[in-house]
Structure formats: C-alpha cells, structure tokens
Amino acid sequence: MKYISVLIQHHAGPTGDVLICKNADGKWEFPHDRIRTMESGEEAAERLAWEQLGMKTVAGKMTMVGHKKPQDGVSEHIPCGNITHNTNTKCDYHCYYEAVNKWQSEPKPGTYTEFKWVHPSELGQYEFAGDDANFMAKYDPWINGREIPDVRMN
Hints:
Elements: E1 2-9, E2 18-22, E3 28-29, E4 32-34, H1 41-53, E5 57-68, E6 75-79, E7 92-101, E8 114-118, H2 130-143
C-alpha cells in the first residue's frame, strides 16, 4: 500500500514556512492520505491538499520515502537522490512530497481543526505522530544542513 504526506510551503525552498496540522490526539502531523490506483505521487499530493485543506498546491520533488514492514510496523525513511530505493514489494511505502501553496490561501477546517505555519528550522521543536515522527528524525538534520546536502525544491 502506498501512502503520501505533503509538506506544504508558502514558497519553495529551504526558507518557506511549512504547514503542520494537529490531529485528534493532540500531536502534529503533515497532511496525509493513500495514493489511489493509477495516481502519481504528484497528483495525490495536490488532491489531498485540496480535499483535506481546500488549498491549491503545485507538487514538487519527493523528499523522502519510507518503507514500512507490515510484520513489525517499523519504517525506514530514505532521502531521495542519495541511495537507490529498496523495491521490496512486501513493504508499504510512505512518500513525502513538497508542494507550494499556489494561491497563498489558508487551510480550511475539516480533517484538521488546528494549523500552524512553521519555519523548516523549527519543525524539530514539535511532537509528531506516527510515521511523521520517524520521518522527522531524518528530515530535521537534513533541512538544517547538518547531515545530508539539501536537494529540495528550488
């Protein structure tokens, strides 16, 4: 099964504020959904931003992909462009895409009731839920340029 999360930014690049949403458990997460059959990652990213938040976005590069083993639920997140992806079909995939807020609109309540725009360097200060917690363990050092070269959207 393929899942997608979207890092929606006000403007592209490492300085664009990122939208985070609070779930029912009071933890922060990125908007997410399943990728539908015959739908590309970019199409899924734009669809879920519209359906869940009422925001028109333009999807960019995939930032990371997580391989989740169904037997133990452990996710390994791999920065895109740095190593060859594991194509093990027994894994669920959770892709993280960046997208830009095309109309510069604010999110609408629906799936989430609380939102916050956060500078990328401050994302590590928030407690994230589920797969997003594992993702942030790799993304936070990456975005702050401490470990992995920044190959994100320009």
